[in-house]
């Protein structure tokens, strides 16, 4: 039985989720694919920090150590920021090693470049986890685009901001109080700027735009507004009129063929598909040529939703790339 060797880049919340799922599904991989799955190395930032890893597993803070591990088949990347993630993934792809990423900041900017590298070196890059966590929007769009042209994509792409808006409405609290609650529950980082400002949703929207339309609008032309200025009174007035605020990212093609995109708080009524989406859930509404309007809703972040999306990409790799599971 062949062993698939895996390296993990990053062992935060998402990396831990991937590691746990891979270990818990080892028997299924043996039964369904006839392979053993082995994590052979983990790249971390602080070797002194205690982590839930077996003592025998190779752990390092040096990329060179991971790069020198022989016969790695697949790399999972769950670190933060454009660099060094982009350079790391380029390195592996150029060696024909498949990579799976959850890094939306990096992929929004460098995704097209990485896909071209992957194609040139007969490798695969999976990126389902970069957008909407456990919601299978990337797979859905890829399947949809085989027949349909997409006309519009609009969605709640950040669970933190959606939780805050939901909490302000249901608990009758201020933005600051709702943010604190989000941090207490682990839904928001110590620095929540990217989430509440709309930057995180913007990056995910750019990834979806590239896939759906084959291009992105000029970043500087996209209006990005956050939820920081919304007050409890704003929320209450919306509720009194039967409306709710949602933080919506949207991209579409205009009549002239140009792309336009925006990220902003939006008032929606009971008939809108995003009206009932509360808490940390994400939701994406796709308007397509023949299928019409399709809405996907699910958990947008977290250890297991995001980790699950990455492992599902892994299954796609071992299913579609014979050289991964059949020795040459």
Automatic annotation (TrEMBL):
Keyword vocabulary terms for this entry: Amino-acid biosynthesis, Methionine biosynthesis, NADP, Oxidoreductase, Threonine biosynthesis
Listed EC numbers: 1.1.1.3
Domain Homoserine dehydrogenase catalytic: 136-315
Pfam families to which the protein is assigned, alphabetical: Homoserine_dh, NAD_binding_3
Metabolic or biological pathway: Amino-acid biosynthesis; L-methionine biosynthesis via de novo pathway; L-homoserine from L-aspartate: step 3/3; Amino-acid biosynthesis; L-threonine biosynthesis; L-threonine from L-aspartate: step 3/5
Catalysed reactions, semicolon-separated: L-homoserine + NADP(+) = L-aspartate 4-semialdehyde + NADPH + H(+)
Domain Aspartate/homoserine dehydrogenase NAD-binding: 10-127
NCBIfam families: PRK06349.1 (NF004976)
Family: Belongs to the homoserine dehydrogenase family.
PANTHER family (alphabetical): HOMOSERINE DEHYDROGENASE
Protein name: Homoserine dehydrogenase
